[in-house]
Each structure stands twice: as C-alpha cells, then as structure tokens.
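Q: Protein A?
A:
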Amino acid sequence: MNYLILWFLIVLQRVVELFFARRNERWMKKRGAKVIDENLYTWMVRTHVVFLLAILFEAYTRHQFTAPLQESLILLFVLLQAGRVWCIFSLGRFWNTKIVVLPGSKQVKRGPYKWISHPNYIVVGLEFLFIPLLFHAYICACLFPILHLALMSIRIPMEEKTLKALTKD
C-alpha cells in the first residue's frame, strides 16, 4: 500500500471519529452532560494534528516513501485499529474525545472496559509508537509516545475524578 494512501486513511479515520464525538457530545448535552477542561482537550488535538503532520514531514524529508511497508507493522496497525473500534463501540453514545460526563449515568463496564479503565489511551499510546514506525519516522516514534504519556498523566486523573463525582457505579 502506498504511504500517502495509508496516511490519508488514518487522517480520514480521525476526522470521522471527530464527527462521531461531536454527535455524541450533542446527544449527551441534551440530557444534561457536562464538558470538563476544554484547555487540555485543545492540547490533545494539537498533539494529534502535529503527530500526523510530523510523520508525513519526517518520512518525506528522509525519503522513506520508497521503503517497503513491513507486514508485521501493518498487522499490528490493523490490530490496534480493531482495538480502537472496540473501545468506541463499547462506549456507544458515551464515547467522546472530550471529557463529557452525564450526571447519574452508569460507568460503562463492557468490552475492554470490563477489564481496564482506559483501554483507548493504551491503543492511542501504541499508535503513537507504531504508526511512525510504519512510515520509518523514528524521531516521531520516540517523541510522541512521551508526549502522550505526559498528556495522559493529566487527563486520566481528571477523568477519574470527574467520573467519581458525576456517575454512579
């Protein structure tokens, strides 16, 4: 598969997810949901945009578009996308890219959320490592997982605190 096609498919997937998130946010807000900390969300969006552009830039400047795609990394990428979709569908209308919590709702405990609290962030962290490797963007593969961990060190405690305050178990 051509690198640019793969890159555009990844971007398209992210854009489609943002439409789902916006739809879910509107649905939840109609029912009294609250959005928590838009500032952190802005930084997360910026990180993802820079991530995608940096991969393209690094691969282009290092002339890596002609290097062969590695089947094992493609397989891992497909598995990560399956994990991402599983997380999104498990949360259903409650899935969002923002922290949006509907007071009085129960915390979702199905799919991967049955076993761990934030499986989507694990998937995203692994994507920040392995997607750049697909494109031979090794600087991105080193830098962006660290940025993701830094953001998650703020985001996850914020989500946990919000979920405890606004939902019933």
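Q: Protein B?
A:
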Amino acid sequence: MNETNNNIWLHRFAKLVVGATFILIFVGGLVTSTDSGLAVPDWPTTYGQFMFSFPLSQMVGGILYEHGHRLVASVVGMLMVILAVWLWLKEPRRWVKRLGWLALLAVIVQGILGGLTVLFLLPTTISVSHGALAQTFFCLTICLALFTSREWQQESMRVEDAHRPSLQTLTIATTAAVFIQLLLGAVMRHTKSGLAIPDFPLAFGKLIPPFDSAKIAIHFSHRIGALIVTIFVVWTVARILQHYRHQKKLFRPALLLICALLAQLTLGAFTIWTQKAAIVTTAHVATGALILGTSLVLALRVHRFLAVSERVHLEREIGEAIQEV
C-alpha cells in the first residue's frame, strides 16, 4: 500500500471512529433516558460474567440498554486503540500522533468513569464528568478525522477576513457556548431536573419562574443557555451565508449547523411536552453532540482557510521588515 492510499484509509478509519463514537453517545443517552444506569449492578463484569460472554437471551429491559452501552463502548475503545497505533506508525506529524494518544487516554478514562458511576450508584459529579468527557472525546475524534483529511494536509490559499468580530472569534465562541450548554444539560439530566419546569415556552406560566429550588434554577439555566447558543449559531451562520457562501467547506457545515439547531430546539420543547419520552430525550442528547461536532468543524476550517486581516497586515509588515534587514 503506497503512502497516498495509506493516508486515505487512515482518514476513513478516523471517520469510522467518529461515527462509532456518535452512536455511543446516543446509546449512552438512551441508558440515562430509560433510567437503566444500574440495571447491571456490577462492573467490569456483568452479573458476575465476562462482558462478552453474557448471554444475549438475558439482555432484556434495562439490561439491554446498559449492557449494550458497555459493548458499544468496548468496540469504540478497541477502534481507538487501532487508530492511535496506526497514527503512531504512519502519521509523520508528531502533534497528530500525540493527539491520537490523548484521545486514547480520554476513552480509557471515560470507561473507568463509566464503571465508577455504577459502583458508586450514579453520583452526580461522576455522572456529569462521564457525560462531559464523552463530548470531549467526540471532539478529539473529529479533530483526528479532519487533521488526517486531504483538505488539511494540502496547501491552500487563505482568504482574508476583515469583519469584526472575526469569523474565527465567532466560531470559537459558538463551540464554547455549545459545550457549556451540553454540560448544563448533563447536570440537568443527572440531577433529575428535566421536568422541574413542566411547561414550555413559558415557565410556570411566566417568562421567569420562581426559583423555589435548585432544580428549577438548573433547568432554567439550561433554557437560557439554549438562547445564548441560538444567538451565536445564527450570528455565525448569517456571517457565512453573507460573505462566504462560495466556500463549500464553510457553507455546508453552516447549513447543517442551523438545521441541527432547529431540530434541537424542537426536540427540547417535545422533551417537556412528552414528559421526557425516552426516544425524544435521547435524540435531544445526540443532536446536541451533532451541533458541538459541527461547530467544531467550522471553527477548525475557519482557522485553516481564513486569515484575520490584522494578522495578515502584521505578517506582511514583519516580512517587509525582514527583507529590508
């Protein structure tokens, strides 16, 4: 296999890891949505048996969700081991190799946190950390898939961005806002605050609810976070549609981002209206991960293909000064 073919297959495998991780996030969300986190009370065994030898006939009810989650997580872990070793053997860029090892470390810690959530009976701190690290690992796999792509390794002309705030600033802020919102969502889910405010779009029939409990405050914070994310996403997408519609590498993910946001807002509303129906709530979790991943891709591509005008002028001045010397 020549170097070009190896790079292609490495990139494809990295994308496979991204897809598998997304499925894992969905299955993990299903475990929480169905309250199946303790359906299997031991770890790393399953009712005292080796995980992969547990009878399929006994995978019913909550056991199906929790044990299935463990099996999918194991597959993702094995895929990540292969990817990290492949990068170590074939990837010439040292920083990409290190990123691969970091992703492997993240998935190992993630597995340990998953086990601890069971052994310590779903404590909020560990459960939220488990969810947060899942999103972080998902972002790392996306980075690896993008960094091993042909678009990232080939030289490209950078387009000057003279707007304020820069698109780079907007995409970074959007990604950060989405990540924080997912953390708030994890706190809300694991503190059982999802229906602390039982109506939508109002809150107890008002714009601002009475903060009679911590659960109401957590829930309302998540709603405020959704508003902030919406503002950043709309701002970012509007900028791209207005000035960079011809840049397919930016236009396509921007279109996906706004569509995912609309779907997410709808799912959030239906989560309340259906009293947290499992499939709706799980889809809400998965769509949140999709929004995070898409905003991250946009931020990375903007960094790659656009140059902030002030930096461009500074680089030119430095270059001219060096030539004069």
